[in-house]
Amino acid sequence: MFGAQGTGDTSGYGGLARTAASTGSSERPYGRYFDEVADDLERAYPMFSDAIERVVVDRGELTLHVKREKLVEVSKILRDSLKFEMCMGVSGVNYPADAGRELHAVYPLLSLTNNRRIRLEVSVPDADAHIPSVVEVWAGNNWHERETFDMFGIIFDGHPGLTRILMPDDWQGHPQRKDYALGGIPVEYKGATTPPPNERRSYK
Amino acid sequence: MTTFDPYAPSRDTTEGTVYSVTGGDWDSLVQEIGSTKEERVVVNMGPQHPSTHGVLRLVLELEGETVTEARAGIGYLHTGIEKNMEYRSWTQGTTFVTRMDYLAPLFNETAYCLAVEKLLGITQDVPERASVIRVMMMELNRISSHMVALGTGALELGAISPMFFAFRERETVLDIFEMISGLRMNMAYVRPGGVQQDLPAGAIPKIRDAVKLMRKNFKDNTTLLVGNSIWMKRTQGIGYLDLAGCTTLGITGPVLRSTGLPWDLRKMQPYCGYEDYNFDVITADTCDVYGRFLIRMNELEQSLRIVEQALDKLEKLEGAPVMVADKKIAWPAQLAMGGDGLGNSLNHIREIMGTSMESLIHHFKLVTEGFHVPAGQVYVAIESPRGELGAQVVSDGGTKPYRMHFREPSFNNLQATSAMSEGGMVADIIGAVASIDPVMGGVDR
User: Fold this and answer.
1) What φ, ψ does residue B276 adopt, rounded to 5°?
2) Pairwise CB contact (< 8 Å): A17 & B398
3) What is the average per-residue pLDDT within B336-350?
């Protein structure tokens, strides 16, 4: 445990890191209620093919990859016409190898009326990590977007108060990005500094 | 202006005078605040406050005793579990998730394992006995979690006796957990593919006795609180949040059911075979703290019903496997609890150390490197005592999670604090927060 170098990965298998392959678009029929959801959305939203980049059905779950400019529009249609009343939050995923789309935001949606689930996914480049906020559509996404900003540095434009939520306000960096190493930080208490565990002592 | 008060020193800032109250003589503080013309006071409640369920910080703006603004500050218990899991194998992940919402460890483990199984495509291969054990453990866990919610909620509103009764019942449940898994909390008992070990000999009669005992003992709290006029005055009409508020804020669990909507994932989107059990979804139509309290009280009996049905099933499934048959996923040895309280499997040790080199290699690879999970992402949601607990898991095909995110009901529901308590009295915030039942380990992860 002590004396770990580099990422702090002590499992010994850190070198086996691989890149996640992005799945291609799925073909119709999607199965289950997914065709119905896609049809309803196309009817209610004529710009469907322009806004939805890919439709992926994997392991019995439907994912709509939405262009970020259209996210709020699509969200409102999904909430009002397709009755996805609830958004179960947003979580980020960092794919450093996916050039131009390094940061993904994933929104699981739930329809209480129809008892259905779908998922929205938005991808943005690291250099321009801006996604419009959906807090005006689902107010409960407020803290979730703050957490995703805190952990991944994705800026949700239009959020009522986008500040860090879990990490301290003056924290440097966004911990759950892949380029952020796992490791300890020095602790300051009453004037004394305790180094992080991986730098305290090495049993060499 | 004022003399120095060692218990409540004050300093002037650009925002106004800031008082640091450290206990002791409150009279001088009240006197000093009374001398200012402003009615508006901003109070920091927490993070070290006994009635904020751990380290929750509430920033309250008060006009007299009326709350004009309430904001929750969180993050004091952030432990980076999601990040850490990216550096450990899929099996080791259960050891992390069990520590998130520490009052409902089995729900965290089950949500995580269901997600991993869905990624592996072995959801149908999980043995029935393992699913039944998971259901039984989760329902027992729901009882112990609701008991803490009821006991601490009552304690925070000034009723001490219910807390003693509630923790007595919780102790019964924790003893069962200890008998089955060896641990009372954070047991990492549910594993991808099944459960860590089978029930020990004589477990079923003991659980039956415990169910009987709890059913009798629950009445103590019912008689103390249901219909108690002081309790009702403190909880009725307090912390109001209707269905529209719940849907827009993404609120699930007892708070959503207190609006009259019978939304319970065990019924609506069954998992672990919940469709085979008879139980009722408890609702209330009052949208207030009292309704949520009644829902939790009545869910205890429903959980006992499910536990009894699970025990009947377990008797029929005696000797059936509790882990998937696939040796590339299942833990190499089915450990049994020894007399010393440690899990061991002497036959397995004899095989890998004495007879089969291949078995040893297989054991070594599976335990140190772990199994590979095909690339993809899934979202699995289960009904935890606090609402929808979702596990968003992404795999890149490796032996460790690529990204693990928990949609924690505590984290989401805590956002309702402002909606529930603004415009009310400062003393009612306690009841409102207690009715959300946030667990800070889950909120901050």
Assistant:
1) -95, 5
2) yes
3) 73
Evaluate if residue B48 carries a pLDDT over 80.
no
Search chain B and give the residue with CA nearest A95: B402
Task: Spell out the CATH class of B81-329+371-444.
Answer: mainly alpha
**Residues B227-270 pLDDT 10s:** 788 888 888 888 899 999 999 999 999 999 999 999 999 999 99
Q: How far is B118 from chain A (nearest CA, A)?
A: 7
Beta-sheet pairing, A155-157 with A130-132: parallel
The answer to whether the CB of B194 falls within 8 A of the CB of B128 is: no
Q: Please give the pLDDT value at position A1.
A: 44
Give domain limits for chain B.
10-73, 81-329+371-444
Q: How much is the mean pLDDT over chain A?
A: 83
pLDDT at B155 over 90: no
Query: How many beta carbons lie within 10 A of that of residue A187, not counting itself?
Result: 10
Q: Of B257, B248, B262, which Cα lies nearest the Cα of B287?
A: B257
CATH number for the domain that contains residue A161: 3.30.460.80
Which of A1, A11, A109 is the mutation pick for testing B, counting most B CBs within 10 A?
A: A11
Which residue segment(s) compose the domain that A133 sits in?
A: 24-171
Quick check: A20 and B89 CB within 8 A? no
Measured distance CA(B366)–CA(A10) in Å, rounded? 17
B396 to A18: CB separation less than 8 angstroms, yes or no: yes
Q: Which of B215, B277, B261, B253 is nearest to B385 (CA)?
A: B253
In a domain, A9, yes or no: no
* DSSP letter assigned to residue B425: B
User: What digits encode the pLDDT tens for the residues B384-435?
Assistant: 999 999 999 999 888 889 999 999 999 999 999 999 988 888 888 888 998 9
- The residue of chain A nearest to residue B84, with distances taken between CA atoms, is A182
Rounded Cα distance, A19 and A36, in Å: 33
A11: closest CA of chain B, how far (Å): 7
Closest B-chain CA to A152: B83
Q: Which of A102, A115, A149, A176 to mutate to test the interface with B (most CBs of B within 10 A)?
A: A176
Read off the amino acid at residue B208.
R
In the predicted structure, residue B176 carries a pLDDT above the cut 90: yes
pTM: 0.87
Beta strands in B134-293 (DSSP E): 190-191, 194-195
**What is the number of structural domains in chain A?**
1
Mean pLDDT, range B76-84, rounded to an integer: 89
For an interface test with B, the pick among A84, A91, A148 (most B C-beta atoms closer than 10 Å) comes out as A91
